[in-house]
Write a structure and sequence with these properties.
Layout lengths: L4 H11 L4 E2 L2 H4 L16 E3 L4 H13 L4 E4 L16 E4 L6 E5 L4 E4 L5 H9 L17 H7 L6 H4 L6 E7 L5 E5 L11 H5 L8 E8 L6 E9 L2 H13 L6 E6 H11 L9 E9 L2 H17 L2 E6 L3 H12 L1 H6 L4 E4 L9 H14 L3 E7 L4 E8 L4 H20 L18 H4 L2 H14 L13
Helix pairs in contact: 1-3, 8-10, 8-13, 13-14
């Protein structure tokens, strides 16, 4: 639906004409994200470049009843940045300044459009460490990471994005700046709104800046690759490592399908005949303790039937291992026209049962599935390779996804460990929770978004 030209002029008067997009060719770029959902063209895209502009843009949009979709890089897999057809996109990737890196008090202040990997590199250059490392970090923005509570390979030991949020400033529906949290380690002034905003997927307000906790980097680390001739043995090793009270920095799983596609793509030297591999890294403050943990991990892997364990001999070999893992999704995505990537997550002890169930579902529906993921924290990514244009095949895909979610919930798991709910998974929310929970969340949302204009159609609608 075309937007009122007078309203367009008002947005242009706030941000400048070059920051307001209305041409169909431009709007198309913001009609989709990484979820397998149909694109929707917004009526307007506005890209504020200052906090003051952001406040005014939000107020003008809300006062005029425009549905607002907040977007950084659009790398999310839940459909939460697919806009409403009669609404607007507020693009935050031009709010991209690192405002402060404080080495004395171990925090940083950033605008929401800062790219995750660029921020991590800037922090590293100052001798500090920002652990969250989502697979999309080379493109994704910190605002999007907070909005979806992004995880990553290091989540097992170091936690996820929400664990590094100290505070933030958020623009509410009135265009007012709401401040929550602090640069201090302790904070109990008012409600913990920063925690509420993590995983809110843009439904409660628009981030203006974020205060992020930093930590000292580990002094030593050791990475290894363990091969298995049976998927169940690999998943049992995951459970064994965790139950042995060892907490690796990373504990990643790839099945044979993933291994073959990744190796064809990266030539990283992965064992293509293995039924599964575990990529494991332990780190810490002292080399002897790291060595001890590595020995314990290798002992568990051997007891569970690992046929070979390779230890990275230097930083270059370690980088090669992790670059291969980060290429799992791109390699799978090149195999077929459509890639349906899920992130059903279960208690870590249930990893063997979840892996077995995914393989059974794939066989039942005659689908090619590659499974990889953060096995150490129960977060698997069963990835279905298909072609959405084949309606019969895609009907089988949808049935398979239903069953995968059902199994995850039966195993006391959750619909999403890190990708978010968005539009893609909203229909399953009541299955995991209950009607009272849905209504409670709706009421909370209405208090902060009376017209339900922020990321309409996402999460609790």
């Amino acid at each position: 639906m075309p937007i009122n030209p007078t309203l367009v002029k008002e947005f242009e008067s706030i941000t400048g004409k070059e920051q307001v997009l209305t041409e169909p060719a431009d709007l198309q770029c913001y009609s989709y994200d990484a979820a397998v959902l149909s694109p929707v063209m917004p009526a307007l895209v506005v890209a504020p470049t200052t906090q003051e502009q952001l406040c005014k843009v939000v107020k003008l949009a809300y006062d005029n009843g425009l549905p607002i979709t907040v977007r950084g890089s659009g790398t999310n897999l839940s459909g939460s940045t697919i806009p409403q057809g009669d609404g607007m996109v507020i693009l935050t990737n031009r709010l991209n300044k690192i405002l402060e890196i404080n080495e004395e008090d171990l925090y940083a202040v950033v605008e929401p459009g800062v790219v995750t990997a660029q921020f991590a590199a800037a922090v590293t250059a100052r001798g500090l460490f920002y652990p969250p490392d989502p697979g999309s970090q080379s493109v994704s923005t910190l605002g999007g990471n907070v909005a979806h509570n992004a995880g990553g390979l290091r989540g097992l030991k170091y936690g996820v994005t929400k664990d590094y949020i100290m505070g933030m400033e958020v623009v509410d529906y009135r265009g007012e700046l709401i401040k929550t949290g602090s640069r201090t380690v302790k904070y109990v002034t008012g409600y913990n709104m920063a925690a509420l905003m993590a995983a809110s997927e843009g439904t409660l307000g628009v981030f203006s800046n974020i205060i992020i906790k930093l930590v000292p980097p580990p002094k030593a680390s050791k990475a290894m690759l363990a091969e298995f001739d049976d998927v169940n043995k690999a998943s049992e090793a995951v459970a064994g490592i965790i139950s042995g009270h060892i907490v690796p920095c990373t504990l990643e799983f790839l099945d044979q399908n993933c291994i073959r596609y990744v190796e064809a793509d990266t030539k990283a030297g992965l064992p293509v005949d293995a039924a599964a591999i575990l990529l494991i890294e332990v780190d810490g403050g002292h080399p002897l303790l790291v060595e001890e943990d590595a020995d314990k991990v290798m002992e568990v892997c051997r007891k569970c039937g690992s046929t070979n364990i390779r230890i990275a001999q230097n930083a270059e070999e370690k980088l090669k291992i992790w670059e291969a893992r980060r290429n799992a999704l791109p390699a799978l995505a090149r195999a077929r026209p459509t890639t349906v990537l899920e992130d059903a997550t279960v208690p870590r002890s249930q990893i063997p049962a979840m892996v077995a169930a995914v393989n059974a579902v794939a066989a039942k529906y005659s689908l090619e599935v590659g499974t990889f993921g953060h096995a150490g924290d129960g977060n698997l990514h069963p990835t279905i390779l298909c072609d959405r244009r084949n309606k019969e095949e895609f009907a089988r895909v949808e049935a398979a996804v239903d069953e995968i979610f059902d199994v995850a919930l039966q195993l006391k798991g959750t619909l999403s460990g890190e990708h978010g709910i968005g539009k893609a998974k909203a229909k399953w929310m009541e299955k995991e929770t209950n009607r009272a929970t849905i209504e409670f969340n709706r009421n909370l949302r209405r208090a902060l978004d009376p017209k339900l204009l922020f990321n309409a159609g996402n999460k609790f609608v």
